[in-house]
Write a structure and sequence with these properties.
alpha+beta, 27% helix
Length: 152
């Protein structure tokens, strides 16, 4: 959170790690790439949140880890939840023009997560103020697989 904190402070948003998080879990993976994914997810949450907070939660599930980034921002219409992961697709071009972005961050993030045999998805009611939650599910032992997930 230290990299993204100044941006959150600028907008007077609370950025925190959920106290229920597993602070002991360690992922054996390409740390640089996963760090890029997390920075992208957190920055997106900050960009599309005008008031409230962004919380990060880490939970170990057997030999996997589930990371969530939840915001209180604009939210994503339910019919757009999957299309935000397509290159150059943005939910609302007027908002995107205001906050900036290329429409490549989420597709690249998903690809990086899949290279670790994980999954990246979003959930949202589409109601402004209820925001969106992005989930990263990864094996704790995530050796990078340049081919992407098995069977795809």
């Amino acid at each position: 959170t230290s990299i993204t904190s100044p941006l959150a402070s600028e907008k007077n948003l609370a950025l925190f790690i959920d106290p229920d998080s597993d602070h002991e879990v360690e992922i054996n993976a390409d740390k640089i790439r996963l760090r890029q994914v997390m920075i992208n997810l957190i920055n997106n949450s900050i960009k599309f949140t005008e008031k409230g907070s962004i919380s990060i939660r880490v939970v170990r599930e057997e030999s996997n880890v589930l990371i969530s980034v939840k915001d209180t921002g604009l939210g994503i219409p339910t019919e757009m939840l999957e299309s935000v992961f397509q290159e150059f697709t943005q939910v609302d071009t007027t908002t995107t023009r205001k906050v900036g972005g290329t429409g490549l961050g989420l597709p690249i993030s998903r690809q990086l997560v899949q290279m670790h045999n994980g999954r990246l998805w979003a959930e949202s009611t589409g109601i402004e103020g209820e925001g969106a939650t992005f989930y990263v599910f990864l094996p704790i032992e995530s050796k990078i697989n340049e081919e992407g997930p098995k069977g795809k």
